[in-house]
Design brief:
Structural class: alpha+beta
Strand content: 15-25%
Shape: globular
Length: 293
C-alpha cells in the first residue's frame, strides 16, 4: 500500500500523515489532526492568542521529545510570534489564532500545548489562577479527588467559583477564571496563600513546597504555575504519554473517588463532547476578582 507523502488538512500541508506518533495505539499524525479539528471549538478559547509552550515529539512519543517556547527553523507559517515586555532577552514567543494553527502544531509533531494564563494583548494580566494537585508516593487518585474538593471549598469561602480538569496524568487542575485586573505577582501571591493555609491546617496531607523529600504521603498544592512562563497543559490538549491521554474538563459531580482519568483519551473525547457537552463552556463568562487574603 502506498504511503501518503503529504495531504492538506484544513488548508494546512501535513507531511507524512501516516507517521505513527503513539505506537501503542497506532495513532498517526493524520489521526491527531482529525482529533484537533474535532475539538477545535473547545480548545481554541484556551490556546488561541496566548503565548504557548510546546512539547514536540516529531518521531513519536517514545522517541526524542523536546520543549519549545520560541520560534526556530521549520516553524509553519500559520504560527505567529510576539515579543513580550520583560521577556525580550528570551526571544519572541509563539502563538496561534485559529484551526489552521492547531493543524500546524500537529505538522510540527506537537503532542502537548501549554498556554500562558494570559493573552497576547495583555500578557501581564492573567485571566486564570491554577492549582496543580500533584500526589506524592503512596497516594491514589481518590486522595487527589478529595484534595480537589477541599481546594474548591477553600475558594468558595473566598466567594470564588472554581472549575476542574484532569491533567492527563496523575493529578487534577483546579482553575479560577479571572477578570484581567490583577498582575502576575498578585495572582501568584493569592495562590500561594491558599496553598499555605491548607498546608497549615492539614500538614500531614498537604505541602506547598516542591521538595520531593517531603512529598511522600502528601499532595503538593502547586501554585507555581501562576507565573508567565510556568505554564500548565491546556484543556483538551493531548499528552505525550501512553494511551494518548487528554487533559479533560470535568463537572464537579464527576469528581468522585472512583473517577478514572485514564478514560479520557484522544479516542474518547470527541464522543464525550457530543454526548455531554463541554463542562467549561461557560468559563469565559465567569471571570472573577480576587479577594484579599
Amino acid at each position: 500500500m502506498a504511503v501518503a507523502e503529504a495531504i492538506e488538512v484544513n488548508s494546512v500541508r501535513l507531511t507524512s500523515p501516516d507517521k505513527v506518533l503513539y505506537p501503542e495505539q497506532g495513532i498517526t499524525k493524520r489521526a491527531l489532526a482529525d482529533y484537533y479539528l474535532a475539538v477545535a471549538d473547545h480548545i481554541l478559547p484556551h490556546v488561541a492568542k496566548r503565548p504557548i509552550s510546546l512539547v514536540r515529539c516529531p518521531t513519536g512519543r517514545q522517541k526524542k521529545c523536546f520543549f519549545q517556547r520560541h520560534a526556530g527553523s521549520g516553524v509553519p507559517e500559520q504560527l505567529r510570534e510576539i515579543a513580550v515586555a520583560g521577556h525580550e532577552d528570551a526571544g519572541a514567543y509563539l502563538y496561534i489564532t485559529n484551526r489552521q494553527g492547531l493543524i500546524a502544531l500537529v505538522q510540527m509533531g506537537v503532542l502537548e500545548i501549554h498556554p500562558w494564563g494570559s493573552r497576547i494583548d495583555r500578557p501581564d494580566r492573567p485571566d486564570r489562577v491554577i492549582f496543580d494537585l500533584d500526589p506524592g508516593e503512596g497516594l491514589g487518585f481518590a486522595d487527589v479527588v478529595k484534595a480537589a474538593h477541599e481546594v474548591r471549598a477553600a475558594l468558595e469561602r473566598h466567594g470564588l467559583t472554581a472549575f476542574i480538569k484532569t491533567t492527563g496524568g496523575k493529578g487534577l487542575h483546579v482553575v479560577i477564571p479571572l477578570q484581567r485586573r490583577h498582575e502576575w505577582p498578585e495572582v501568584k501571591a493569592f495562590a500561594r496563600g491558599v496553598a499555605e493555609a491548607m498546608s497549615k491546617a492539614a500538614p500531614e496531607r498537604y505541602l506547598p513546597r516542591i521538595s520531593k523529600a517531603e512529598r511522600k504521603g502528601r499532595i503538593f498544592i502547586d501554585y507555581l504555575r501562576n507565573d508567565p512562563t510556568s505554564t500548565a497543559v491546556a484543556p483538551y490538549s493531548t499528552r505525550s504519554r501512553l494511551n494518548a491521554p487528554v487533559s479533560t474538563p470535568l463537572t464537579w459531580d464527576e469528581v468522585t473517588p472512583d473517577l478514572d482519568p485514564g478514560r479520557f483519551t484522544l479516542a474518547t473525547i470527541p464522543t464525550r463532547l457530543k454526548k455531554r457537552g463541554d463542562p467549561w463552556a461557560e468559563i469565559g463568562k465567569r471571570a472573577q476578582r480576587l479577594p484579599s487574603l
